[in-house]
Amino acid sequence: MPVIDAEPASPLRRRIDDYLFEHPVNPRRVLLAVAVLLIALAITALSWSQKDESPVASLPFVTVAPSTTTMPSLVVVHVAGAVISPGLYHLENTARIADALDAAGGPAPEALPNQLNLASRLTDGQRIWVPSQSEPSDPAENEAANNQPLNINQATATQLEQLTGIGPSLAASIVAHRENQGAFTSIDDLLNVTGIGPAKLAGFRLQISAP
Question: 31: which of 5, 45, 60, 196 lies 20 to 30 Å off by Cα?
Fold first, then answer.
């Protein structure tokens, strides 16, 4: 078979071959170069990641001022009823009813202090009535209750007789009308009761109430 000569190498290829022959590759230098390259790439990547991170805005520090609202150090109470010295007394806001009785000289001999909650804390403007055998309830409360209008849908005939201008016969008529016709929806419904006209109703209107 005819022998085919290999294609002659180019001048560049010959120069590379000559350089490699005269300067053999050092593996340690190659590894060092690769390590330096990897470190450079890592530093570059880290710097880019830090640029992409958005800075976190710092939150303002708010200082909450302590509340200046304080309870009054003293309360004023009115001690009345069966005590030695009834009257107004200034006591600490942590005081109890027992302290108020002590400030008023203590219960009178006929007093019934056990009917009170002696451990109850005082409030400013409070009225403390100490009951006794002769006055078991506070007259001021009784007067307020007596001044309450009479509910004509709940009142008995006897209670209705206490109204101005209402006698036993008319009181019975009011109760009978309520039972037969149903509850009164207003005070003016009393005008439907026989014997009650505008003038008579005006005489006790302020003494009664209706839903």
Answer: 45
